Amino acid sequence: MIERIAGKDYTTLTNIEKMRELCRVEAREQGSGLNRRDGTPTGDSSDAPFSSSGTDHASAALVSAKVKLNKLSGR
In DSSP terms, which residues pair with 3 in a beta bridge? Predict the structure, then answer.
């Protein structure tokens, strides 16, 4: 439940807790892990070439978030 006063939304900590309880989901059993029962061989990590694609993706997401934030803040 929210209250809108002068175009701003307000709620109470109790209402936030109620919302969190309603939105909570049960944790599922992990479907994969490090247990290699199927006999799949593991590779040596030194064999893999270095790649920064993970950081590139994170940087792109950060830039996108900053652009959206600036639009919302009116800058």
Answer: 10
Decide which of 36 and 9 is more confident: 9
CA atoms within 13 A on the CB side of 51: 7
Task: Map 6-70 to HEC letters.
Answer: CCEEECCHHHHHHHHHHHCCCCCCCCCCCCCCCCCCCCCHHHCCCCCHHHHHHHHHHHHHHHHHH
Judge contact between 9 and 3, C-beta under 8 A.
yes
Q: Is the pLDDT of residue 12 over 90?
A: yes
Structure tokens, 60: 């792109």
Mean pLDDT of 2-26: 92
pTM reported for the whole predicted model: 0.33
Look at the block and give the residue holding tokens 């989901």: 25
